[in-house]
Amino acid sequence: MKYNIITLGCKVNQYESSILKSALDSIGFVYSEKKPDIIIVNTCSVTESAIRKDRRIVNKIKKDNPKAKLYVMGCLVRVDENASEYLKADKASRSVEALEILNDFGLGDLVSDNNLEQYGTFDRSRYFIKIQDGCEQFCSYCIIPFVRGKMQSRKEMDIISEIEKAVNRGYGEIVLSGIHIGLYGKEHGNEEKTSLAKLLKKIIEIKKDFRIRISSIEITEVNNELIAMMAESDKICKHLHISLQSGSDNILRAMNRPYDRAYFKKRIEKIRKEIPNIAISTDIIVGFPGETEKEFENTCQFAKEIEFSKIHVFSFSAHKKTKAYNLAGHLEKSEKQKRSSVLRGISSELEKKYKKKFHGQELGIVVEKFDDKYIYGKSEFHFDVKINKNTINKGDLKSGKLLNIQN
Questions:
Q1: 358 and 404 in contact (C-beta within 8 Å)?
Q2: C-alpha span between 218 and 258 (Å, rounded)
Q3: Which residues of 212-234 are buried (b: 16+ CB within 10 A; e: fewer)?
């Protein structure tokens, strides 16, 4: 039986798809993008535009593969019980657990927890591991708390075991992923027992050659213990993705974000004092309801002031179930597009400025792929690197290998 999995949305969706892929492989299914018998679409519902993309892609899949059975899973199915009907899918699953998904799809009798290895299969050199799920912050524009539910952290021993397996299989970079990873362990009610910093300490102790990257985290959760650990350990990449969302205090309050401009800037200054060359990337939403031209200009100026290494720009497109959807002052699509273009231009300039700092310096990279002439990798500071093969001692060159190169 041939199958294909189409994954839309975030790194957590990618991880959950990879676990499902491993489960299907374990029962003898064969992954194939050509003429699959089963197609599974892991959906995203973070915004209305994401939902429109789900429907557009599903329609194309059905048109291109009329004989294949279509199964849908993921966030859209969890937030809208009618999704499988209007997507015209054969079956749907609201679960994120591989065994439960297989049960929903009628394949559960072929596999059990005893022979289902909880390990993802990624095609690249970087392994994304989900350490927690859920969020209870309820930002006014965000559907995730309604979709993912309350915070749930995985056991430390399970995370450590999975990382050891990934490293033994050749992955050189481990990316800690989740919905709200900065609050890892908080729902247990005993932060002295477990936390992100305590988990990191145990991961660092694994006696293997690999590095760790922290994925998206809130500025309020980058505490002094975490900063000190990042500054001291060579195993932790000097990169944090910290969402700003807006440089206007009025808009931040409307978004229900847990900080203001002054707090954000003060914490960034603390981080940079301890880790001078750290890469700090961010997310910014453009065109939030009521955002004035002046407030947008403030956001642009603040982004330059902070000197982000990269900005991911999103035009506002809230889900109907969020508070922001019903706020007054929605902007025209053309205005949101114009502002997004301006901010992307600023991001491009900031990226160039940041990368220039490392010209002529030695960089640690993880090899992602290579061809006859070049090696392509990801630096610890998260920007991509392309180097001539002849400039290094190739040795046992392979994807996932950590190299020190002259930039």
A1: no
A2: 9
A3: bbbbbbbbbbbeeebbebbeebe
Q: What CATH code would you report for 123-237?
A: 3.30.750.210
Query: What residues are paired with 125 via a beta bridge?
Result: none
- Asked if the model's pLDDT at residue 187 lies above 90, the reply is no
Helix intervals (H) in 89-223: 98-104, 144-148, 156-168, 196-204
Top CATH class, 2-110? alpha beta
Which of 75, 77, 101, 106 is CA-nearest to residue 21? 101
Question: For every residue of 101-114, which 3-state class applies, written as one string?
Answer: HHHHCCCHHHCCCC
For the chain, what are the domain ranges? Answer: 2-110, 123-237, 362-406
pLDDT at 82: 86
Pair type for strands 69-74 and 38-43: parallel
Per-residue model confidence (pLDDT) at position 395: 67
Q: Give pLDDT tens digits for 217-241.
A: 999 999 999 999 999 999 999 999 9
Lowest-confidence segment of 241-245, 266-270, 294-298, 362-366 by average pLDDT:
362-366
What is the value of pTM for the model shown? 0.89
Place of tokens 């009628």: 106
Structure tokens at 349: 């300039």
CA 316 to centroid of chain Cα atoms: 19
Sheet (strand 211-214) strand order: 126-130, 173-177, 211-214
Nearest to 119 by CA among 128, 110, 111: 128
H/E element, 345: helix 333-356
State the Cα–Cα distance between residues 215 and 204, nearest whole angstrom: 16
Q: Burial level of 271, CB count in 10 A (0-12/13-18/19+)?
A: buried
What is the distance between the alpha carbons of residues 17 and 122, in angstroms, rounded to a whole number? 10
Strands 69-74 and 91-93: parallel
Kindly give the pairing relationship between strand 152-153 and strand 69-74.
unpaired
Q: Using one digit for the tens of pLDDT, what is the confidence trace for 318-355? A: 888 899 999 999 999 999 999 999 999 999 999 999 99
